[in-house]
């Protein structure tokens, strides 16, 4: 993983790349949170699909970033994992640390 981090740090020196990287971070945070929540409960995508009524293929698309979830869909996923969906706004200075 350090090779990736080294490469990423090098690429982030380019202002255009940095802007694009920062622009996709909210989406990446949602994907990461969904996957971490599912995995923390030892659930497969198929099991989560059964709990939520969301097709496993759609859960896969959400996790690989080819589909953007609606708020309603995120609530269904949270309910299926026995969790509450929490969305917050964080000042930019804190978010970058």
From TrEMBL:
UniProt source species: Acetatifactor muris
Annotated CDD domains: HTH_XRE
UniProt keywords, alphabetically: DNA-binding
SMART domains: HTH_XRE
Family annotation (PANTHER family): HTH-TYPE TRANSCRIPTIONAL REGULATOR, METHYLPHOSPHONATE SYNTHASE
The HTH cro/C1-type domain, residue ranges: 36-89
Name the record gives this protein: Anaerobic benzoate catabolism transcriptional regulator
GO MF, one annotated term: DNA-binding transcription factor activity
Assigned GO CC terms: cytosol
InterPro entries referenced in this protein's UniProt entry, alphabetically: Cro/C1-type_HTH, Lambda_DNA-bd_dom_sf, TransReg_Diox_bact_type
